[in-house]
Amino acid sequence: MTTWRIRLSYQAQRDIQEVLARTYDQFGDKKYDEYRELIRLALMDIASNPYHPRTRQRPEIHASARTCHLTRSGKRARHFILFRVMDNHTVEIGRLLYDAMEISCHLPNGYQP
Q1: What is the pLDDT of residue 100?
Q2: What is the CATH number of the domain that holds 62?
Q3: Which one-letter DSSP state was computed for residue 104?
């Protein structure tokens, strides 16, 4: 099985840091650790197969856009990873977004129609 290389955009790195900081401030150590693990698991799913059943194609966002929600069995989450598959077994992680956001207002560079 080939693992895909993950490339985090600057915006995605910032999103992850901000979400984890907010989670820690509002909910404490335990929820911070749980949310960090949900992000890690989603990134692992994408790295193992960006077409994994947990991901969805999102042509309404961009022709190559896909998303992977962080929610797992028994673990609720309100964020999803926006990404696209690039050449040479590389996946570009564009953003980590709150699922109630107006996505079109928060698209990373290169995802605009």
Answers
A1: 60
A2: 3.30.2310.20
A3: G
